[in-house]
Design goal:
The chain has two helices and no strands. By secondary structure, it is an all-alpha fold. The chain has one domain. 8% of the residues are buried.
């Protein structure tokens, strides 16, 4: 077995999971406030969706850059 066959890429710690959690927190409170007809709810919901979209572009961009750099495998 050569060195390349036993190689596994372990990525560095990422900020994207906590960013997604914050987005879901905003979306959860925004949804609850919107259902109860509180005006703050729509703003929180919009902020949550904006953070979620930011997180998705960032996370998938990080994965694509790692893949294009060839750090996973040939």
């Amino acid at each position: 077995m050569s060195q390349e066959e036993g190689y596994y890429y372990v990525p560095a710690p990422s900020p994207w999971p906590i960013t997604g959690s914050i987005a879901l927190l905003f979306m959860g409170f925004g949804s609850a406030f919107s259902v109860n007809k509180l005006p703050l709810g729509y703003g929180l919901l919009a902020i949550g969706f904006a953070i979620l979209i930011y997180m998705m572009f960032g996370w998938f961009g990080t994965v694509a850059r790692e893949s294009e750099a060839g750090v996973y495998n040939q």
